[in-house]
Amino acid sequence: MRFKKILIADGHHRYEVSRLFYEEMKKKFGPAVFSGSAYTMLYFTNMEEDGLSILPTHRLVKKGSIMPARLERLNKFFKVIFCPYKNKAFLKKAMAGLTSALNENKLSFGFVQTGEKVLKVFILKDKSLIKNFIREKASLCQKNLAVTILDEAVLKGLLGITDFEKNISYS
To answer: Whole-model pTM above 0.70?
Structure first.
């Protein structure tokens, strides 16, 4: 694998923590004492394989970090389905009812705004339109990942969120 290019689609935080742990142990005790800390467990798989599933990580966008006019820009690129709900139980039921539609349209995401009782589901109309917003240098496979489209095209490109550490947390 030494000369292969890899994409860390999941586990990048574990990788970063293990790298920092190794650096800390090396400084504190020298490289020979904790030589095992130079290793971390990985699992490699082919991105093209059927059955590979990358589960969503929910992004919590800080209130006020998106201008309302920017939210309107999404309508040009996404079909929007509105699912009103009364409480969390109704929200879970609405989400379960949309599961098959979302599985068919992998490039989709849900949006719930604080204070509103409406789940908005955004389904990408045409992948070629959104690619212009992906500025990250990446392989075609990586550019087609839903997470890349969400982070690069939607959050950064369309909604203009540039400082993820300040404006986004993950659940």
So the answer is: no
